[in-house]
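>> received
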Amino acid sequence: MRVLIVDDEAPARRRLRQLLAAIDDVEVVGEAADGEAALALAEQLKPALLLLDVQMPELDGLAVAASLPDDGPAVVFVTAHDVYALQAFDAQALDYLLKPVAFERLQRALERVRRRAAPRASVPARQLLVPTRQGLQVLPCTDIAWLEAADNYVTLHAGAREYLLRRTLAGLLADLGTGFVRVHRSAAVALAQVASVQPNDKGDALIRLRCGAEVVCSRGYRAALMRRLADGT
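>> returned
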């Protein structure tokens, strides 16, 4: 397992390197002291895992995690503060370690990374963990009517509620499976929620959902939408 250590404090980086040296299948491929360097090294070195501090000057760890591609390295946050846990898991972190890091706790985090990397059949997600002011909420995927993307965030429209996830639309659709179809560069709909499709002269269309929402389908996605609706898949 190729690991990149990211922390603005040299003693913290040294501590993690010492712990990882005792684990046979781990190789520390580099260290970064700030977020910009972390992104550059992640692109260059292609690590399997970032051990990532949260509080860093300029570009913090949460911003680094949000900037990684969907097929990028796994992220385990390592911080002295527990107040960022909700934001960390919203950023799709696999684990959240508190300093000073215990060896046994680090080993459990690495085991999660190994399980993530193990080959497995692609199974659509049945539910998502979404952040709210009250904490993490379990959202059944069948409740989602449509998805609206902006940069590295996706708004999930579920009835009268909206939830914001720090994901890309492409990455989220890969998890949700064939029950959703992209209808625009920044939008996707649940096929089961489509009530009608009204084409217009410009080649695009207006999708009306069973919940009452209306979503524009751009010309480039219209044929695929109609084919999916006709096939029922």
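>> The CA atoms of residues 154 and 172 lie 8 Å apart.
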